[in-house]
Write a structure and sequence with these properties.
Blueprint lengths: L1 H37 L3 H14 L4 H13 L3 H14 L3 H13 L3 H14 L5 H13 L3 H13 L3
Helix pairs in contact: 1-2, 2-3, 3-4, 4-5, 5-6, 6-7, 7-8
C-alpha cells in the first residue's frame, strides 16, 4: 500500500531533479560559450552552445547565440536553422531581424523582406534601422518606389 504512494513521489522527485540539473548544465555551457567567444575560440564556443541546446531545447539565448556565431563565420544555412529554433522558443524582434539578414546572405530577398517587415510590426523602439533595412531590401529587388517610401520614413521620425 505504501509503495503505491512512495513510488510516484520518488519518481516525481527524480524527474524534478533531472530537469533542474539539465537546465543548470545547459546554462553552464551557455556561459562557457560566452567566455570562449570573448577569447576568440569560436569552434569551442560552438561546441559548448551545441551542448547547451542538446541539454535544454528551450534555450532561446543559446540558439540565438549559436545562430549569430554561425552567421559570423559565414555558415548561413546553420545560422538559419538556429534562428528558426530560437524563434520556435521565443519570438524576439532581434532574432527575426537577424534571420532576415541571413536570408539576404542566402539570396532569399523576399523572405528577408517578410522577416524585417514582421520586426516593424512587433518592435516597440525606434524603427529607423528597420526602415533603412527595408529601403535597402526593396532597392535590391528593384522596387524603387517602395524603397523610397521606407527611406522617407526615416526622415519623418522625430529626433
Amino acid at each position: 500500500m505504501y509503495l503505491l504512494i512512495i513510488i510516484p513521489v520518488i519518481l516525481a522527485l527524480f524527474i524534478r531533479y533531472y530537469i533542474t540539473h539539465r537546465s543548470v548544465d545547459a546554462t553552464y555551457y551557455l556561459n562557457k560559450s560566452k567566455k570562449l567567444l570573448k577569447k576568440g575560440k569560436v569552434s569551442d564556443a560552438i561546441h559548448a552552445l551545441e551542448s547547451s541546446v542538446s541539454l535544454d531545447s528551450l534555450q532561446y539565448e543559446a540558439y540565438k547565440l549559436l545562430a549569430d556565431t554561425y552567421y559570423q563565420i559565414k555558415s548561413f544555412e546553420k545560422a538559419l536553422i538556429n534562428y528558426n529554433h530560437a524563434l520556435s522558443v521565443t519570438e524576439e524582434p532581434i532574432a527575426y531581424f537577424n534571420r532576415g539578414i541571413t536570408y539576404v546572405s542566402l539570396g532569399e530577398l523576399e523572405k528577408a523582406i517578410d522577416d524585417v517587415t514582421h520586426v516593424l510590426q512587433i518592435y516597440d523602439g525606434n524603427k529607423d534601422f528597420i526602415y533603412k533595412e527595408l529601403g535597402y531590401l526593396y532597392q535590391m529587388i528593384g522596387d524603387q518606389l517602395q524603397s523610397k517610401t521606407y527611406y522617407d520614413m526615416i526622415m519623418k521620425t522625430p529626433a
